[in-house]
Write a structure and sequence with these properties.
The complex is a heterodimer. By secondary structure, chain A is mainly alpha-helical. Chain A folds into two domains: 139 residues, no CATH class; 81 residues, no CATH class. Chain A is built from eleven helices and two strands. A two-stranded antiparallel sheet of chain A has the order 1-2. In chain A, a hairpin with a 2-residue loop joins β1 and β2. In chain A, α3 runs parallel beside α11. The longest helix of chain A has 32 residues. By secondary structure, chain B is of the alpha/beta class. Chain B has one domain: Rossmann fold (3-Layer(aba) Sandwich), CATH 3.40.50.300. In chain B, the strands form two sheets. Chain B has a six-stranded mixed sheet with strand order 6-7-8-3-9-10. A four-stranded antiparallel sheet of chain B has the order 2-1-4-5, with helices on one face. In chain B, α5 packs parallel to α6. The termini of chain B are far apart. Classes of the chains: A mainly alpha, B alpha/beta. At the A-B interface, α8, α9 and α10 of A face α2, β6, α3 and α4 of B.
Chain lengths: 266, 282
């Protein structure tokens, strides 16, 4: 359970804001769209615009800003690495410092800043999506977005069922992992110390019971589903339905305006 | 009362176990509206029997055994019709929870049958109210206790409106409180809605609540009778690898210290009555 609390990515914070109430299909597609339009920005005005827009969305969600910053933290080394490469290897503009192939130039600094902004904005936006959308709604959204692919015989309903069962079993399996770990610890297995190969070997008494239990679970679940009349995706009705409301159209309109402004600022 | 289930000459072999059949020539009937308990030690074939009744296992073809549910003979063609009449609650509360939330799980069976959405909502809410889980409707399974999960499983069955409910060791993984809650819910369904209940159990106190008990031993029906008849066997039940109810254990203990206890089976109340009447005589 401790492990789960540290993990911000993919976590949902219950709330009742404008962003929380948006249709998950719209939210999912707009998040992808946002990642696309970030690459339209290439001057400080357009980055400022995107930054203000993102902050506005974050504030609207009424989720504590700390959650977003913690979302960036696990990726901070990757971001810094990319930014540093960018700074040291970009030439052009005023030259501040150089040593062998390494330079610090005006363009390098500016590009480094842009890359940093890009990363942070993408992470903020995707964290906003997962923090404000329950996993269940996300799987509904994926199902309905995939629906057109039924034409190509994609088993959309089955994929959605698998996602929703997988999501439903994440906490159950987490609990079980914790239990098996403790049981094995009680029998003298030492997790997380020693050399790499020792560490790998210690994982085996955890992995095998976990796999075997999962097979048993799958069998039990399949039996229970069959006993309750499950015969495949055909001819089923749905208990949960997604409805597209005015506010969702409003969100799309906001993104359209931002896109227009970005193109104008180029 | 009419028979709702008739089992004639049912046998079953698990493919992995050639030498020992799980069920051998099982015969029994269940009357509409009764509570039947099937008891037996581990590996006596109880769960195999439960799964056969729902068509989840196909009986041996060479043995000509037959299962009839509400007048329908179980075949490949009728299996879904029969499943619609039977609701099953399995042992592990976690492994039979399909939906992401309580409501979704209750609705799962209705979705499978193509029930239109407005009716589905009505039936889900009514079923949750019945098991007193309305306030938990949007909870995820990870946040429920074992007893609550089993009540959700029962709600899923109520929503489907079956004639028969089969409890396949449904209370064995619960704490005493959860077990009492689940049994109270089932008793209510049995008495108020006249649902036929088949409970497969290890728990002798649960079996004591039934109208009739079938004792399975090594895949064969050993005894059939009312709880009073079955529990009067006392010692013989222990030989069959079964437990005896609390009142019987008390009788054995009293007999060992030389008290003259009645031979016939007494419920806990009957035992208390006998104790105070015999004491006041002294």
């Amino acid at each position: 359970m401790q492990r789960m609390n540290k993990l911000i990515f993919g976590r949902y914070i219950p709330g009742d804001s404008f962003i929380h109430r948006l249709d998950p299909r719209g939210k999912l597609l707009l998040s992808f769209y946002f990642i696309g339009i970030i690459f339209l920005a290439h001057n400080w005005q357009s980055y400022l615009l995107l930054f203000l827009f993102t902050m506005f969305a974050v504030l609207m969600s009424r989720v504590n800003l700390g959650f977003f910053i913690r979302g960036v933290r696990p990726l901070i080394w990757l971001i810094l690495f990319t930014v540093i490469l960018q700074i040291f290897f970009t030439r052009g503009g005023h030259l501040y410092w150089h040593w062998g192939p390494l330079v610090v130039s005006q363009y390098g600094l500016v590009n480094g800043g842009y890359i940093f902004m890009r990363f942070v904005l993408i992470i903020f936006m995707s964290t906003l999506l997962t923090l404000t959308t329950p996993p269940l709604q996300l799987s509904d959204a994926i199902e309905s977005i995939l629906k057109p692919f039924k034409v190509f015989h994609l088993p959309v309903y089955e994929i959605a069922l698998m996602i929703s069962i997988a999501l439903r079993f994440v906490p159950t399996l987490m609990d079980e992992t914790e239990k098996i770990m403790n049981a094995q610890r009680a029998r003298g297995v030492d997790f997380g110390s020693g050399s790499l190969s020792q560490k790998m070997r210690a994982i085996i008494p955890l992995l095998i019971p976990l796999f075997v239990n999962s097979f048993n679970r799958a069998e039990d679940l399949a039996t229970a589903m069959e006993a309750r009349g499950y015969q495949g995706g055909e001819g089923r009705t749905k208990y949960r339905v997604l409805t597209w409301k005015g506010q969702d159209t409003l969100a799309v309109a906001a993104f359209a305006v931002i896109t227009g402004l970005l193109i104008w600022l180029r | 009362m009419a028979n709702i289930i008739e089992v004639t000459d049912l046998s079953y072999h698990y493919p992995q176990m050639e030498q020992r059949p799980a069920l051998q020539h099982v015969n029994f009937t269940v009357q509409a509206g009764e509570w039947l308990a099937i008891i037996g030690h581990n590996g006596s074939g109880k769960s195999t029997l439960a799964k056969s009744l729902d068509g989840l296992l196909t009986p041996d073809p060479q043995n000509k055994g037959e299962i009839k549910v509400a007048g329908l003979t179980l075949t490949d063609e009728t299996v879904w019709q029969i499943r619609a009449k039977i609701g099953m609650v399995f042992q592990n509360p976690d492994n039979q929870f399909v939906g992401a939330t309580v409501e979704d799980d209750v609705a799962f069976g209705l979705e499978n049958r193509g029930v239109p959405r407005p009716e589905m909502q009505e039936r889900v809410h009514a079923a949750l109210k019945r098991v007193r889980m309305t306030e938990f409707a949007d909870r995820e399974p990870a946040r429920l206790s074992g007893g609550q999960k089993q009540r959700v499983a029962i709600a899923g069955i109520i929503a489907q409106r079956p004639d028969i409910i089969i409890l396949d060791e449904s209370t064995s993984m619960l704490d005493p409180k959860g077990r009492a809650e689940v049994l109270a819910t089932v008793r209510q369904l049995n008495q108020e809605d006249h649902l036929t209940v088949i409970s497969i159990t290890h728990d002798i106190d649960e079996a004591a609540q039934a109208n009739r008990i079938v004792v399975l031993d090594d895949g064969q029906v050993k005894e059939t009778g009312t709880p009073a008849e079955i529990f009067a066997y006392g010692e013989r039940l222990i030989e069959m690898g079964l437990d005896v109810p609390y009142a019987e254990r008390l009788k054995t203990a009293l007999r060992q210290v030389g008290a003259d206890v009645p031979k016939q089976y007494l419920t806990e109340e009957g035992m208390a009555d006998w104790l105070w009447t015999s004491h006041s005589k002294m």
